[in-house]
Amino acid sequence: xxAPPLPNPGVHGRVCGDAPHTGVRRVAKGGCRxxxxxxxxxxxxxxxxxxxxxxxxxxxxDAPEVRRLINDLERLEIDASELASAEPLRQxxxxxxxxxxxxxxxxxxxxxMFSDADDEGLGGYHGDRS
Length: 130
Known about the structure:
Region (Disordered): 82-130
Oligomer: single chain
Number of strands: 3
Strand order of the largest sheet: 1-2-3
């Protein structure tokens, strides 16, 4: 059985968080979705896998391992179709709110924050660190 083709989600919106390299976009409902390009890549990959599994089936026949591969491929198609129409996950406890990406800068931290801290593995460091 072949799963129906993935729907075109028609994604519009602004980039979700500060991760433009992921292609994830925020849609009007406040969630994050894959772009049309990512869905097209997913569909293309599943189609390539289908051709590969057909080659394995021609080589090995109806072996149990081949049947499992075919079942896995069908499950992958079903899951991809459901993913295309699924709503993004919501953060528990905060209805209607998607967790935001937190950017942590690479700038050095203030050394005074650690002036009274012990160094792990050295039995503690007591005294002036300067």
